[in-house]
Please model this.
Amino acid sequence: MIVHQIPVGPMQNFSYVVEDESTHETIVIDPSWDLDKIICIIDEQNLQPKYIVNTHWHDDHTRGNDELAKMLSVKIVQHEASTLQHDMTVKNGDSIKFGCSELVVYHTPGHSKDSICLVGDGKIFSVILFLLETVEELICLEVVQMNFITACLMYCTTWMIIL
Ligand SMILES: [Zn+2]
Model:
């Protein structure tokens, strides 16, 4: 799994282009602003987009959905609790498959009722806030520093955590 992290917009957000390296099937996580940056990576790397996946419904993570879905001819995937327009629904425990890669969906309501974490290949994509138990678990794994948690609390961007 190859991850392209793309800084976008005026609110310190990230969009992600996540690629299955063996097939080049690709998902785009949280397209909002600067869609040209996403298109540029897809074209340069000759990627095969399959889905747009949103970590939650907020506008700064979804405002690029419709335009990008039309440009790429892909389906929009959201948690079943989302009230936004989407094509496919996921729930806790589902897998999003692209090529030989997959990300498992964890429903983590807290930041919003439809918030999900996407977990796979030693990575977590999430708009933090984690539930306390989960943060403690991560601290046990020694992958989260306090300044990282503070940063996550300050900014509602989508983070990729490497386990
Ligand atoms: Zn949000």
